[in-house]
## 1
Amino acid sequence: MTKVIEHTAIFIIIAPLTGALLLSVLSKLNLPQIWRDIIAFISLVIPGILLIYFIPSLLASPLRYELGGWPSPYGITIVLDSLSVTMATITVIVTITTFVYSLEIREILPKGEKYYILFLFMTTGLYGVFLSGDVINRYVFFELTVLTTYVLLTYTDTKESLRASYIYLVIGSVASFFFLIGIGLIYFNTGYLDFSVLSELVPNMSIHKRNLIFMFILVAVSVKSGLIPFHTWLPDAHVSAPSPMTAVLAGITVKTGVYILVKFMGMGFITDHIRLVMIIIGFITAFIAVLVSHKYWDLKRILAWHTIAQMGLIVAVLSLWNISSVAASIFHLVSHAIFKILLFLSIGAVFYQFGTRDIREISLFKNSPILIGAFLVGILSLVGIPPMNGFYSKTLMLRSLEEYLVLYVLFIIVQILTVSSFFRVLYHSSKGECSRKPFPVSILLPTTVLAGLSIFIGCTTTIWMNNIISPSAQVLTKGYTITNHSLLEIELLTSIHGIILLLTIPVGIGIGLVSNKLKKPDLSGWLTKVDIADSVRYIIIVLAIYLLFTLL
Amino acid sequence: MIIVFVGLYGLTNTHNSIKIILALSVMGLGLILFFVSLAYVPGGAPPIVPIGSDISNINIVDPVPHSFMITLIVINLATTALGLALVIRLFDEYGSLDIKEMIRWGDDESD
């Protein structure tokens, strides 16, 4: 028995993998559907139980599990520290809720059982990305995740989804190759692949080498996270995928990019050049994406652009790389994952009910009250209204920017535009006329749980920040700390930043009202419809600019 | 490394969706060669030695890049296969292999 407990860590990754393999073997046996549901559900729940079992011991010290008993720099390790466990816990929440959600729409998906198998493989990949302790395994698990995502995207089986999946496949593979070049350069310069060893060796490398390597990795990661100008695959993929897949894509898959970025920055790749590049990219992304989101009528597409914008903000704040900014962006990563999934799942429900996602045709407020509640919690959270988690994470991000006035103002502009964009959504969607259809429990349950979670995390911000996120930020930023805010008293609601954040809301609503009257210029032709060849050219051009910039 | 850029050039200069996938495959192959050639040790011995033997004067090849490249070959194969499968479905739906035409298609339909 002790043997089993010793090896518990690996079962987090093995459980969904086993489920996937079991299901693919059993698919020949014509089992009743309920058995397949149960198998899939159990293999998704096991990692959650294991993580809960680990959390108490983690607060004391991170846990390293060495596969096959080979010691760390040579063997493969699984690292359970507070950051990776946080991300893995989000994965548990995301996968279980989206799984329950997809129980209902399963009938409209063709080839339903393969959907489960791929879903479980994707979950395996996600756990692998978050938990593995070396670069190469992270890459391999990441490929597992994206390869299954390519297939899962096509499950609505429409022209658009096939095209989106194809474009994602090509651009994603180019990104993977850049990531590999980065890994190769790291390996041949240091001779190690393990994160903990690398974090001692990398700071000794020359600054040019670090810039060069990190640029390859930054390009790869920004493709995965959909930062402008690498975002071209993201809106199409989000729109055409089935709703639960959109939720997973926006909630977790996009975040793996930033997680990898955080890990690499924690290794000591951060230099002043890189910081500047990331700030520029982040704010350009946030600004353009928020502006573009005003153009569309499709709810999913609007939210997809907001995902891009929020990722831009996260990267920009992250690049300051002091304790408070890292902690704030990690917290925003977590809270954004939760409320974005909530939003996409409720949009799926809206689509289920009205058969359209055009905000001019739906009437949100004639909906089931629980669903309206959940949707509003999501929107208010993204906009930043107090009891929701989005407010707290945004206030923390603002606080970490307080020494940089320009960035502070930019953040507030982006925030105002976000508010006006969502005001536009609510304004139009309250008008439409539509009949309603009753909801099944499997749609209501996940949305309610996520909405509750969003408020719960918001109300307990201090606990998460002080006990989990700030310590991991402290570990990550060692040696690069610039400012150290007192992390004990967080009275965000009454702080100046919180009040400024709240003030943006009436301003945003005002702008939203004005901009409804105005005829909007078409500012986004080249940004929204992009050919593969053009996207690859963007990647090359930007890479060349980076390289020139950093090597000079 | 040059082959990687040949692949990249291929990506930027074709609209045929099969050729795009093959260009990706070429990029992957270029990467494999890049890794293997960097890991080349002149006169290297295989990294299999009996336990306890003296390894200080044997020029051992580093096995990590090679083993990783085997993984990469598999990933590359999977990506190529999946890409070509998608191309088949795309051809069924659009009746064309030209990616530009597929993208233009969306302009008529969506707003």
## 2
Amino acid sequence: MRAAAIVSEAPAPRRAARALPRSGALLLLAVLLVAVPLLAPNAYVLEVAIVIALNAIVCVGLNLLIGYAGQISLGHAGFFALGAYASALLASRLGWPVWLAMPAAVAAVALLAWLVGRPTLRLKGHYLAMATLGLGVIVSIVLTNEDRYTGGPDGMPVPPLVLFGRTLQGESAWYVVIAAVLWLTVWGALNLIDSPVGRALRALHGSEVAAETAGIDSAKWKLRVFVLSAAIAAAAGTLTAHYAGFLTPAKASFLHSVELVIMVVFGGMASVWGAVVGAGVLTLLPQLLTALKDYEMMSFGAILIATMIFFPRGIVPTLARWLQRGR
Amino acid sequence: MGGAWLQFVAGGLTAGAIYALVALGFSIVYNASHAINFAQGEFVMIGGMGAVALVALGLPLALAVLLAVAGAMIVGLLVQRLALEPAQAGGRADVVTLIIITIGVSLFLRGLAQVVWDKRIHTLPAFSGSEPIAIGGARIVPQSLWVLAGTALAVLLLGAFFNRTLAGKAMRATAINPQAAQLMGISTRGVMRASFALAAALGALGGVLTAPITFTSYEAGVMLGLKGFAAAMLGGLGSFGGAVVGGLLLGLLESLGAGFVSSAYKDAIAFVVILAVLFFLPGGLFGARGSDRV
């Protein structure tokens, strides 16, 4: 309902005018991504930047689901980890080249998401949250228990990505790849939202009944967005696996799924930039507050509650509104 | 063989009784607000850990148990008053918002518990000795009987509350049709608060009853909460009878599954149940028939 209000506040005549800030914002993101390694060319900063970018990729996808399809996933960490482990296992157990294992893993996760989403999204209500919750926990338990393949709680080593005969390694090389993927994901998501697909989604969020009267098959569109967001999470998972060279089942935990939802909600539902900012702020926060480690969980909970009460749209859309009013 | 069966059934019913208490809490809050309260498991933890802390202070066990349940009720009231009510003001919050807030509450309470208490695993003394009783080839700890009796009593009291008292009837009316209930002069805000207090009390009761058997810690509520939720789904979210049957059934499935199939995957059974219910029986065993399809 709330997202509908946001949509209706952006009247049609201004859409053309919005094209400029959009490319401006994309340019800003590109500048920012290039500036990081130039201004701070040390491994630690790049490492943190890579983690932020990976979280941001997942969040942009998750935000399409939460913000536009109006459904929550409480199992995105499961899709992320499944992508990571599938790619790692295909490469290490079956000897597939990594460049082939990665897309295969993403496709497998997309198929799984489709199988789970199809029956669930036909039901009215928030059943997807429950289905993804169940699936996520099952994935986490399987990864921990099948230690013959996954190494169990101790984790497993992952073969590196070899492209054109060269092994991709080191923070700076991976930063370039992951930053490029992030930029492309943001660009793709923005285009998707402004396309007929995006309009269908926003109509759905406004009023499902009205949208269906206009010929939009709501279950079908929700399912597509869900599969897309799961595939994006899996893609980020495969990148993480081959970048880090080591995987543990902690990546699949329910808590990690919840953290991803917090990033999206804090940054701003139905805002691509909100997802990026949310991922950035909430990934940095624990790094900055290491002294307060014991209070981390408490502060995450408090941030989530306060955001929903005081900025239910999330910080980016709220700030954007304030700026517009100030003009 | 018979003994093994009996042993698994007894274990399953004991665990199932706790799931039933947690599931009742989910259903009560669901009926009042249509939200899924992801902090429900945290009430179980507060019950268990609260009783442990009070016993450590030197209080007699019975008093510690009562105070822990009362304390959890107050926490439940505060959660509704401080975290959910501000978002519900003016009826502007949708269900997604409420669900996300309860996730925040759950993280906050878990984080608070690890700061106020600690991260270690604790146990509560059994209510009446720990010498197992032999019943037909199975050996059952007396605490299991406490769990079953306590749950049965809670369910009976709850039934009387909802069927015999004005407050209980008001809560049922709100569940059926909030607008109509409001027109009849029922305060939906009061119903929401009462629902949270009641759900917290049930969860905390489960927490104190099971703490002597399964131990407790600041994160003990996570799995119990999620499994109670699975039980509520199985029985049909919002149905009280369904919550009890769903809880006991889930406990039995888990115990028999762990005993005869795979103990490593014991914890996965509840989540397979969630998926199976969603795919094949979306209304649960006793839920609304033919739940809306889009």
## 3
Amino acid sequence: MREADAGGWVEDLFRRESAHLVAALVRLLGPSHLTLAEDMVQEALLSAMQAFRFGRPEDPKAWILRVASNRALDALRKQRRQQALRHRLEPEWTLEGAVELALSPAADAQNQLAMMFAICDGSLSSETHVTLILRLLCGFSSSEIARAFLVDVGTIDRRLHRGRARLQALGELGAPAAAELRARQGSVEQALYLLFNEGYHGSDPDSPLQPAMCADALRLGALLLRASEVEQRRVHALLALFCFNAARLATRLDQAGVVVPLEQQDRTRWDRSLLEAGIEHLGASAGGAALTKLHLEAGIAFEHTRAASVASTDWAQIVDYYDALLAREPSPIVALNRALALAELRGLEAGRAALAALSGDARLHEYSFFWAGRADVERRAGRAAEARAFYRRASELAKSRAERAGYERRLNELEPHASAADALSRRKT
Amino acid sequence: MAQFMYVFRGGGYAAPGALSPTELEQHLAKWNAWTKALMDAGRLAAAQPLEHPPTGKTVRGRARAVTDGPYAESKDLVSGTLIVVAGSLAEAAEWARDCPILEQDGSVEVRPVLDLPAMPPRIELPKG
């Protein structure tokens, strides 16, 4: 999403190279040398940082690659001497050739794809999958992941430890077999879905938007299309969903870093190329036997992005999609979104009733967006006192400063009327 | 105007995993901004980064014993030098105060370079 380049420098170069090189080196050295591979990459990036301090080379990527290749060669020569890698390399290959091939840009997609499927092992939780993806395939550190998920570093390190142990037990990081691709596709999609969501409304109180994570989810999702054995239509639905949501990223926060509600977002600033890519993926996702959860979510995101305004949005279609989602799998969050869509379709009172019917749900009770949704409906219906109470509750539960600031702004907008009404009532008495 | 040598030591980069790839890149951007400011002010005469991880040899004593590598602790390890042009030692030290190495527990030693009339001629390295 961000491609700025002056003099051979791409933003996020170190993080991207980390992902590229870790996957390449693990494939080259074997998963049992995962930690060694990670250390080598970290060392190569350190070397680059030291070397580039007084000026950057013309091709920084090639420089980093060369350093990593040299490290890998040294390690391979040493281990070949120790016979630890007896079966690793075909005898007729030169070590140099093998290293060059493994680290080449051409091998990158297959390396990362193999890593992604190896990570999404059924014996590991989906949290562990995402954590490993963020560490190994996105180049985030434990503390960066911990900040994003709002958990302590120890938890992340334990997940990484479990995941690494599982990976290290693999003999090879080969191209995933057709059966494995099909069996793990759901886990991989789920992990990428979580990764995207973390970027889209993350837990970090200081920066709730992590466009880099959304971009990574898109990048890794696109890799899935390279595996012909996976159910491609589902991948297209996932990518359509990512594209439609990512297109709106830039308008989700205003210049003061406050969350901007959908109806106030500047639709002219939605990313056209992502919207078009989304439409293409949505088209490619159709025609399959099964209409999956991903298809329905992509459909909802599409309806939002294709409308010129909230008022002209096809709410009937959106409510239908939510109904289909609920029929598939009951979820209080989906029910909440359906109730809000119903308020647009049938009017505020219908939405209000639907929301009130959900107020017994314990999970929604602790969910800021539930209270914010109720507050919005009350505000629009002209019940300022109820709206204020609900915005306050939402503000207390908000995960980020940006989100809280959005509610505080609503409260402030409600205040003048309130004080006028209060003043009026005081005058009467 | 006179020349001063900055000798960079340490900087906490030795501990693996101390900085994430993103943090390393952000740190690098600070270095590049700092050297650009020196260059834009016409103060940067030369800069020599040294290889990392530190390699090299040390020749020591009457026995001319040659040993591998620099032996310093990582905080004392020289990681590069730079020549600035400044009006005084105080001014040269002032420029060094913005050096990003200080954010990573490193140090900058500022030394006046002697300007002797009969310096040996410099050798230009062959290109390539």
## 4
Amino acid sequence: MTRFNVDDIRPCLEGVIPAFVATCSADGVPNMALASQVEYIDAHHVALSFQFFNKTRENILAHPYATVLVCDNETGATYRLSLHYLHTETEGRLFQRMKVKLAGIASQTGMSGVFRLQGADVYEVLAIERVPGQMAEAASSPRNLLPAVRAVSERLSEVCELGRLFDTALDCLHEHFAIEHSMLLVLDEDGRRLYTVASHGYAASGVGSEIAMGDGVIGVAAEHATPIRIAYMATEYTYLRAVRQQAVEAGHEAQAEIPFPGIETPHSQLAVPIRCGSRLLGVLYCESPQPRRFNYDTEDALVAIAHQLGLSMRALQCVEVQEEASPQPLSAQDAAQGEQALIRFYAANASVFIDEDYLIKGVAGLIFWKLVREHAQGRSEFTNRELRLDPALRLPDIDDNLEARLILLARRLHERSDFLRIEKTGRGRFRFCVQRPLRLEAIAG
Amino acid sequence: MSAVILTEELVAFCEGPVGIIVAACDSSLQSSVAFAYGCRVAPDRSRVTITVLASQAEVLLADIRATARIAVNFARPTTSRSIQLKGHDARIEPVRAQDLAQVTAHTRAFTEELLPLREMSEAAMAALFGYTQEDLVAISFSPCDGFSQTPGPGAGARLT
């Protein structure tokens, strides 16, 4: 008889069909109940959603064994799991993953507001048995994703510049995983917000748009450093709504916001943390208007890719820091021509407007303000090192994210202005090009 | 415990397009579980007969022979309404003509119930609900207890 482990039956654990849980009371009375969700932990462990205190719960606390039926919605194959209850988690990564996924299942089954995860009941899987019966051929045969992971890994290893690394990663997701909509967000210096540095598949790039820690699947993935995947749209995890709500709460400051590029109805969402060691660097995010677009295998593949991204991001930043040249002497500038543009800088939040258009705020706003002021003194060549040493930019001593901020600023300028741009001139150095006369105006905060 | 007499409305629910899952357990409190393929309630509503596949329910049938105890959940996917009936006088019976008719009608109705949800393809449902007549076994019991299991504040309430 074939011996199965949980890896073999992951399609049954996507939350499409509930699991059927049989338990027995201490006095020998059987009980049958449904569990909305069985979450994969590893080849020998699963977690069941604990939503209500019921007979199942009473039974497993008294006698920690259950027998569970799960079904593969693609093939109709059914498996019987013998489980041994170990413990319940009410916080942490597993709990957060299940909480978000359950919100999607609740919304799909009309149970929003009724389903609420109280705990993740962790079970050891003692045995898995295939229930005799027919099995249909899956409509979409499971694709081996290893060649795609390998191809992406090779492409990423060839990239030598941070901005290109971001774009290559998202291009690869499209090319090798047919993921149409994706974004890469980087954690800001104080670890409270994530800002978009690259996106793929949106009408407006949304570069510079921000997500707070804990907000939606991206914010939860970042806050708990765990992949978050949702197969059905749940309004509480939909970004356009969350971002609009923030805009309303922010009131007048809403004008200094870059719209989040997300799709209107993201039925499937997958957010994978990008880490280097224990440090969170950002989040890789994919979404789709199609339900159940991403499965456990997609998640595995993207987690592997995100780990490589994290190492590459860190390595490329280190290279840039090491190879930075000393400050360049004053250099000749191209003559600025045409109508004068007004650059306004609001010191309160370091936001910058070009004429009436919002450009950027925060650290990138401070960098921009430094560049335009020094440019007025006749400079156009800059080094990352001098920015890093400038106390006015308030960069932390270590792990300053400067390269990611410069990429963000360069991309915003590219999108919002046809007369201002940042050109990389070598590792750790760049040119600030200004083709119209500027008038600078600082508004004290 | 006194017997639960199902209302006509509950009979219609149990015999309708619902998923039917059966649990039992052995003397060492190890539980067993199997899908059922149909349900028929006696005209006087005192006894419920469900039909399982012997090949799928080997342990469950042994447990019922040994303990006569049974728990059956009926759940309608489109409404999430769910109830559980329990019995302690369950016995295994040969399948009768009306059980066969019920299984045919039930698998058709349940397939139609599931189709619009687009959770499973028709091929997957055909596999899941596929059976041979020789494999069918009936289990009958008098419900001695019943509970609502519809998710929400009323879950766990006794059927009155």
